[in-house]
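Pipeline run #58 for the internal structure catalog. This entry was flagged by the ingest filter as a single-chain record with no existing model, so it goes straight to prediction. Upstream metadata was stripped on purpose; only the residue string is passed forward. Reviewer on rotation: M.T. Logging verbosity set to normal.
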Amino acid sequence: MTDRWPRQILFGDIDAMFASAAVLADPSLAGKPVAVGGPPPRGIIAAASYALRRFGVRSAMPTIQALRLCPHLILVPPDRPLYRRLHRRLQEVTDRFFPATEWTSIDEFYAETTTLQTRHPDPTALGVALKAAIREATGLTCTIALATGKTVAKIAADAHKPDGLAVITPGSEAAFLGPLPLRSLPGIGPKSAESVERLGLRIIADLLEPRFAPLLTHLLGTRLAPLRALAGGQDTEPVVAGRESKSVSYETTFEEDTDDPALLEPVVPWLSRAVGARPAA
């Protein structure tokens, strides 16, 4: 008999949804380096299949750069009506499983499953059933993670993609998070990570080391306490059904840090078009 969790949160992430949708529309693309986006010279990549990501291609990358990395990539245009149809089917599945779902984007969602443990006492079985239902209704694969909080569930899903299932049991959160890179933790962006790493910290567990406490307090101030709480797996943020996304974003990473306007200015229009190409949930 599985012990009842004091709190249980499920996170779901559809694997490479836009690229996977292109394969649904044209099954001959399965397993191939597929990109959704606009053509060069001004086009950008909105999504990349996992086969294409192995070449270093990622979202928000200029298409012309992606073609240099993978000359044989297959470029398909966005199909917003198809994405919306798939999203509606996804919602129908989650509505059957959960009394309330928080969709944070068209392809990511949280559900509070604490009160469902009588019906679904085994979190692994719940995850398997949900993945199967999503696959049957949409043809899409997804990665599911269950944990005691939203942050750990999201990080666990990211670590188990694609088509994965992770269950982080109560009390094991810190052990799971500990060896992961600092940048895996929400609230530690590139600048904060650089500053913290200069102090000798490399992994999330380092945030909990007493020997680093004085330096971190000086560097982070009041931000340190909530970051240490998250590093220990403490997260009480509620699941809010019907919450609308506050923002939509895309990002890209340069091979080296730069403040050269000649390099930065051309990227801004590409990122703007990437945001515009992303359909709302």
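catalog note: Residues 80-97 form the longest helix (18 residues).
catalog note: Residues 253-257 have pLDDT under 50 and may be disordered.
status: ready for reviewer M.T.
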